[in-house]
Amino acid sequence: MISSSEGREFVRQRKVVALGGGACRALDRMLARWPRPPCTVAVDTDDRSLDASRAAAHLPLGGRLTKGFGSGGDPRVGKLAAEESVAEWRSVCADTDWMLLLTALGGGTGTGAASTLARVAMSCGTRVTAVATLPFDFEDDEKLKRAQRGLHELHAACDALIAVPNSGLVAAAGSPHEANAAFAAADGAVGVMLTALCHMILGQGLLTLDMPSLQRVLGGRVRPAAFGFGRADGESRAPTALADLLACPLLVDDHRLSQATAAWAGILAGNDVSFREIETTLEELRAAMKPETTLLTGVYLDEFFGDEFNLVAITAGTQRKAEEPSLSQLDVSTPLSKTARRSLSTEEQLKFDPPQKGRFKDVDPTIVGGEDLDIPTFVRRKIRFEAAR
Questions:
Q1: From CA 149, how far away is CA 143, in angstroms rounded?
Q2: Of 15, 110, 127, 344, whose CB has the highest number of CB atoms within 10 Å?
Q3: Which 3 state secondary structure label does DSSP give 124?
């Protein structure tokens, strides 16, 4: 069951969900520097991770399967755990119209469960923006391969996906000598991005952002979006932060601001920031990009940031081919299983008789993610076959 660490009922419609041990730990570090966070939920197969989490609500996955001891780094266990807990997960999504899903790929729970949970959330009418961190370059090849497979599956299951390589994140954060400081700096940078997105979508900034606009910029892409940032304080904080963003090692190839086809940029600063600083920064940022690039902007001021000037950007590269459908183009207020039933072609189709269960007609169906798994996949998903001629 879902528990609240503060014993209160959640009625807010935007949530930040951390999936897996790595994401739960990262969320904890972010919350230490997150002014007035939205509703946060920790989701994991490991009870110890949930017990230590500072998130407002906790959801254990696959208790019967894992006994609360985690997935052992096996994505198959993570996927089965997610399928076991679909009903509980649906209750998290039931009152949520937008979700930021934070996960670390390469292990078991996040890699295996993320795409399943994202699809279920979408079927509940929840728009899902996922942020996935990728393993360090020095980690083993198998983990890197698992992460890439998980990234591909997650990309196909949500509205928009932002991929963040850990090695580039630590380098961009300044590579502090102490390991704890390096992780804290990296998570702090991601936390600033999440803070900016949440507050601006909640309408709490000077310049805000709505979900359809975010989806328009980030959705329907061949590759996940990328994230970059710059941060400075002092007298020349705004130009320094902009210079750091333009040179950020996380933004490469067609995700560089000078090459991106679409981008969102947000400023987070203290209440003492001047209008001139905001205006000049956004004008120079626009000038650094191609004239045809779509740019959305947001500004959020809070005394919590003191003298800091934080500039974050999410950039999208190549647009998906127009004829290739994407999940961001679907009506997510309708379950995916129903959306998939819409016929988009007039080609002749083979006819199938309704499935019969014979002597198993009185046995309860096997329902996972709202689909009856006793019905063959090609029948259940209305896969079309060209009739023999």
A1: 10
A2: 110
A3: coil
SS3 state of residue 100: strand
Burial 8-30 (b: 16+ CB within 10 A, else e): eebeeebbbbbbbbbbbbbbbbb
Q: What is the pLDDT of residue 375?
A: 63
- Say how many C-beta atoms besides its own lie within 10 A of residue 269's C-beta: 25
| CATH 3.40.50.1440 location in the chain | 9-218
Q: Which helix (H) or strand (E) holds 268?
A: strand 262-269
The side-by-side arrangement of strands in the sheet containing 225-232 is 3-4, 57-60, 39-44, 14-19, 98-104, 127-134, 160-165, 225-232, 309-316, 262-269, 294-301
Residue 375 burial (10 A CB sphere; 0-12, 13-18, 19+): middle
Which pairing describes strands 294-301 and 262-269: parallel, antiparallel, or unpaired? Answer: parallel
Q: Residues 54-70: pLDDT tens digits?
A: 999 999 999 999 999 99
Q: Which fold has domain 9-218?
A: Rossmann fold (3.40.50)
Q: Residue 209 has which token pair? A: 């952002």
Q: Hey, how many other C-beta atoms are within 10 angstroms of the C-beta on 181?
A: 13
Phi-psi region of 154 (alpha: psi -120 to 50; beta: other; left: phi over 0): alpha
Is 238-316 a domain of CATH 3.20.20.70?
no
| Chain centroid offset of residue 63 CA | 24
Number of CB atoms found within 10 A of residue 132's CB: 27
CA gap 273, 292 in Å, rounded: 29
Average per-residue pLDDT in the chain? Answer: 81
CA angle 206, 260, 174 (to 5 degrees): 75
Which tokens in the block code for residue 82? 């997610």
For the chain, how many residues are written?
Answer: 389
Query: Over the stretch 264-292, which tens digit does the pLDDT of each residue have?
Result: 999 999 999 999 999 999 999 999 999 99
**The two three-digit tokens of residue 69, written as one number:** 């001891």
